[in-house]
Specification:
This protein is an alpha+beta fold. The protein contains six helices and 19 strands. Strands 1, 2, 3, 4, 5, 6, 9, 17 and 19 form a nine-stranded mixed sheet that branches. A three-stranded antiparallel sheet has the order 16-10-18. A three-stranded antiparallel sheet has the order 12-11-15. Strand 5 and strand 6 form a beta hairpin. Bound molecules: fe (ii) ion.
């Protein structure tokens, strides 16, 4: 074991890493895995099946755990792990059933957004439940010079509050979405629309349809069309890696360089269950 091999998964981003046991990595191999993650943005390791405790231990090697604001879906005896699940037991969801259904970077609505997300598949449906990632470094590099100049130095406003986002439909899962989101949403956070990666020095676009609701010091009349233009650019399929999950996939990604999307489409009685851990990042610069 630990004869690590890195194989690209698409022209856009992503690599499969083979020859490792994520639960038992020596320091040197872990360092190479982290480098592979920085270089490839998304890393897939098949056939892992880490327990919640082992997944937490693995995540801690990347840094400090970041806890989700949705406390009701943290695993009871392992609160570092958030349950994403379509399972319903006694009429109640056991995890977040619809997490990530719009393009986003995890926790960009707080001052120090997530650096790394680590997702372990537990139950995978035959149909549906795929995930996509888009390469925000390439998205930035392929902007035309005029657009690059226009966003230079601009700061995006990020909010968890879906009801304040002009691009989001009114959620149907909550009885009173305005109250639900007002109660849970932290204060707005403000991040450079182009951020620099602390390890690679690469620049990436750092905005998302789900969480970026405006631009600091810019009227919506100017800000919203500019965001629309940028979101149309990042929708380019050439930037995307599409992942079809198998049970035991351990997938990690670098939120500073990518947006991701849960494709949905899971049809009951089939279920999808994933265990998520997130690692705190730096204040974006
Ligand atoms: Fe997410």
């Amino acid at each position: 074991m630990n004869q690590m091999v890195v194989t690209p998964l698409s022209d856009a981003l992503g690599a499969e890493v083979t020859g490792i046991d994520a639960a038992n990595l020596d320091e040197a191999t872990f360092g190479r895995l982290r480098d592979a993650l920085h270089d490839n943005i998304v890393v897939v390791v098949r056939g892992q099946a880490l327990s919640p405790a082992a997944q937490t231990h693995f995540a801690r090697r990347f840094g400090e755990i970041q806890y989700h604001i949705n406390s009701e879906y943290k695993m009871e005896d392992q609160p570092e792990v958030l349950i994403l699940s379509t399972e319903i037991v006694d009429g109640k969801n056991v995890g977040i059933p619809d997490a990530g259904s719009d393009w986003h970077s995890d926790h960009s609505y707080v001052e120090r957004p997530t650096a790394y997300t680590i997702l372990q598949s537990v139950i995978v449906p035959k149909v549906g439940g795929d995930t996509e990632w888009t390469n925000m470094v390439k998205a930035y590099e392929t902007l035309d010079d005029d657009l690059k100049a226009r966003i230079q130095g601009l700061v995006g406003i990020h909010s968890f509050n879906r009801t304040r986002n002009p691009r989001m439909t009114r959620p149907t899962r909550h009885e009173n979405p305005e109250a639900y989101f007002a109660e849970r949403s932290p204060p707005d956070s403000f991040h450079p629309m182009v951020r620099t990666h602390p390890a690679t020095g690469r620049k990436a676009l750092f905005i998302s349809p789900r969480f970026t609701i405006g631009i600091l010091d810019l009227d919506d009349a100017e800000a919203q069309p500019l965001l629309d233009e940028l979101f149309a650019h990042i929708a380019n399929r050439d930037l995307v890696y599409h992942h079809n999950w198998r049970p035991g996939d351990l997938v990690m990604w670098d939120n500073r360089q990518t947006l991701h999307l849960a494709c949905g489409g899971v049809k009951p009685p089939e279920v999808r269950r994933m265990h998520r851990t997130t690692v705190q990042g730096e204040i974006p610069f």
